[in-house]
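Anyone up for a design puzzle?
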């Protein structure tokens, strides 16, 4: 019996085949076999417009974002320089002037 690969998104071992797709029942991620990266360590993160982001890019916030523990939000149009991509739900680590180090979701930024 062939060993199916773990889910590239959540690393679940309970993947199954559905036609020509592989499916993860835990996070509902679907992918084609061989579509994950060869070495498995390169992370692909896309912004709200579908542009691929890389470490060191500058992005712009596209929506006012509430910050826990702060009375003021991160305003729309705030530029964030020198981002670092990480794995997880909040996949951008950065420093924002006036707020300090924080993590952002890529769906709320666009490449500048």
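Challenge accepted. My sequence:
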């Amino acid at each position: 019996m062939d060993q199916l690969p773990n889910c590239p998104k959540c690393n679940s071992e309970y993947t199954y085949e559905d036609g020509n797709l592989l499916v993860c029942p835990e996070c509902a991620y679907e992918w084609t076999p061989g579509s994950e990266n060869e070495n498995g360590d390169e992370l692909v993160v896309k912004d709200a417009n579908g542009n691929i982001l890389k470490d060191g890019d500058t992005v712009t916030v596209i929506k006012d974002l509430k910050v826990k523990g702060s009375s003021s939000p991160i305003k729309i149009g705030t530029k964030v320089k020198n981002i670092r991509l990480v794995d997880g739900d909040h996949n951008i680590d950065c420093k924002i002037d006036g707020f300090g180090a924080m993590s952002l979701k890529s769906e709320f930024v666009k490449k500048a």
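A detail worth pointing out: The chain is about 0% helix and 30% strand.
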